UniProtKB/TrEMBL annotation:
<keyword id="KW-0479">Metal-binding</keyword>
<dbReference type="InterPro" id="IPR000315">
    <property type="entry name" value="Znf_B-box"/>
</dbReference>
<keyword id="KW-0863">Zinc-finger</keyword>
<keyword id="KW-0175">Coiled coil</keyword>
<feature type="coiled-coil region">
    <location>
        <begin position="132"/>
        <end position="217"/>
    </location>
</feature>
<dbReference type="GO" id="GO:0008270">
    <property type="term" value="F:zinc ion binding"/>
</dbReference>
<dbReference type="InterPro" id="IPR047153">
    <property type="entry name" value="TRIM45/56/19-like"/>
</dbReference>
<keyword id="KW-0862">Zinc</keyword>
<dbReference type="Pfam" id="PF00643">
    <property type="entry name" value="zf-B_box"/>
</dbReference>
<protein>
    <recommendedName>
        <fullName>B box-type domain-containing protein</fullName>
    </recommendedName>
</protein>
<feature type="domain" description="B box-type">
    <location>
        <begin position="64"/>
        <end position="105"/>
    </location>
</feature>
<feature type="domain" description="B box-type">
    <location>
        <begin position="4"/>
        <end position="54"/>
    </location>
</feature>
Length: 274
């Protein structure tokens, strides 16, 4: 039985027998079991066919090489040296009618393995491969460079962040100090006025007491003169309080933030062609 990964023997399959092939004929393009391989080898007409192992066949089975003309579907049995092109029997009288060097392909492929076309192909593959390798190396080192640059920028951002933090700490400290100093100064002005008011209150209480005693115990002339003198003192106290009140202010704190504090971030990436 031929399993999925096995190649069946072509001649046996022709007899509706399924057998695994151990060999592959590249000319017949089919697998050969041991028995069919032996008879294939003995047949005079098949003797110079190129028979390879199934392992080697695995290496070429996926190489798509067409042996028929893409325009006419006929086998490519002719070769035009003028056009360096394999052609079919229909191509010969049409496109290559005037070509002087049209030969059977069997003649042309006699030294196919040593041809310059093949060595040119090998060279082209080798050169292209080298170029691709160079490109890979180049892109790998560009990726490395990019990673280094990324790290540098990242460090710069972190450093800037630290600096901004430090700056904000200092700014906060300065603002709080100014606030405290301003509040202290306002409070000391309030306190000064408060002390004046309390002293006035004390004086007025004394004058009230003196007036009450004068009324009770002093002579008429003393009451007459005293009334006027105490009145003068009261008036001067009233004037002094009035001018203090005029000079008094209610303080209020206000904070204004600069518009620059709403920050804009801009990232600019540049790529340079060498
Ligand atoms: Zn067979
Ligand atoms: Zn064969
Ligand atoms: Zn053709
Ligand atoms: Zn031609």
């Amino acid at each position: 039985m031929a399993s999925k990964n096995q190649v069946p023997c072509g001649p046996c399959m022709f007899d509706d027998v399924t057998k695994n092939a151990g060999k592959w004929c590249t000319n017949c393009e089919e697998g050969l079991c041991e028995d069919c391989g032996n008879s294939h080898r003995k047949s005079k007409i098949l003797r110079n066919h190129k028979v390879i192992s199934i392992d080697d066949y695995r290496k070429i089975e996926n190489i798509a090489i067409s042996q028929v003309c893409e325009h006419h579907g006929e086998n490519l049995e002719w070769f035009c040296k003028n056009h360096d092109e394999a052609i079919c029997v229909v191509c010969v009288p049409s496109k290559h009618k005037t070509c002087s060097d049209v030969i059977p392909i069997s003649v042309a492929l006699s030294n196919a393995r040593q041809s310059t076309a093949l060595s040119d192909l090998e060279d082209a593959i080798e050169t292209t491969l080298l170029n691709v390798k160079q490109c890979i190396k180049n892109r790998e080192s560009a990726t490395n460079d990019l990673e280094k640059q990324e790290l540098t920028v990242k460090n710069m951002i972190l450093e800037t962040r630290t600096k901004v933090n430090l700056h904000l700490d200092k700014l906060e400290e300065k603002l709080l100090r100014e606030l405290r100093e301003t509040a202290d100064s306002c409070k000391s002005k309030y306190n000064k006025f408060l002390r004046n008011l309390k002293a006035t209150e004390e004086k007025l209480n004394k004058l009230k007491e003196q007036t009450r005693h004068m009324k009770q115990f002093s002579s008429d002339i003393q009451v007459f003169l005293g009334t006027r003198q105490i009145n003068g003192q009261i008036n001067s106290e009233v004037e002094s309080i009035k001018s203090d009140i005029c000079a008094t202010k209610d303080y209020e704190f206000k904070v204004s933030m600069h518009s620059l504090l709403s920050l804009n971030y801009q990232t600019k990436l540049k790529s340079l062609d060498k």
